[in-house]
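Sequence of Flippase-like domain-containing protein (Oceanomicrobium pacificus).
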Amino acid sequence: MHPARRRIWQRRDLWISLGLFVLFVLGLAGLISTTGDVDVMALLGTVDGPKLALLLALSLVNYTFRGLRWHLFATRMGLGTSLMQNMRHFLGGFALTVTPARLGELVRMRWIYRETGVPLAGSAPMALMDRASDLAGNGILLALALALSTTGIAGGGIVAVLALVMAWVFTRPNLLATLTGWAYRLIGRGARFFARLRRAVRDLSRFSDWRIALPAMALSVAGWFAEGAAFGLLLGWMGSDIGLWTAVAIFVFSMLTGGATGAPGGLGGAEGAMIGLLLLQGMPFDQAVTATALIRLVSLWFAILVGFAVFPVANRLSRKGAYALENGDL
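Predicted 3D structure, token representation.
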């Protein structure tokens, strides 16, 4: 891509992210305004500096564990990239979390191509496994949380099963290859694209080994549990201790349903589900809205902030890697 066009796209992605953040803030501010400023400020005051640092640290645990999972997949693919490279790629991709079509996965694969020469089709199975692992990890965690929670969530079991089924589909190379063939026959064009996609999904068989699948699931469950636990702590500090596992169940259920809407980062859907479930637990409206706003800031938007910090470094080093690869220095 021409450098000038690349800069235009990068600026566009930045403005999209900023615009969605502004809409997120305005939407929650509108909800909060209906509760009364005094109540909200009192609730916000319950989360001081050390408590906020703990919430952010738990979010970092999630990002780190999922980054280690990405490294596990890269190692299995035989990319020859180091732990630092893979963590840099994974975290930098967070900058584009709320851009359309989840461009974070694409930019990670672009960096891999620059530094290793492996084309997009060669690293695409990693992105599929990353999505499948998140679905499976959240499905397992939701089922566990519902089993240990003192109160249930209507439809929670169905969502957990659907997440696990979708994760299973994403890890079935032969099934996906068949579906790819059906899609090509239905559309009737794009033979080259569908041929590459078919080769990519067949490469998923590399991850069927239990020595890869089990650690990947463990990292997924542990990572997402850390953010669910952060949500439980936050609710307790606000005086609405509904129990750890109920808080985890609400958090994971909201992430899954938000993602199902197809909106970037699950915006709108995740917040709506979280507020609604907290209200069903008997929480006052002001507490539900404030808790939702804070947990999304320290999870989703903190991830994007980390991504923006890492992105220019990853982009610069990938260009250096591409130059070294072209000149035979690697």
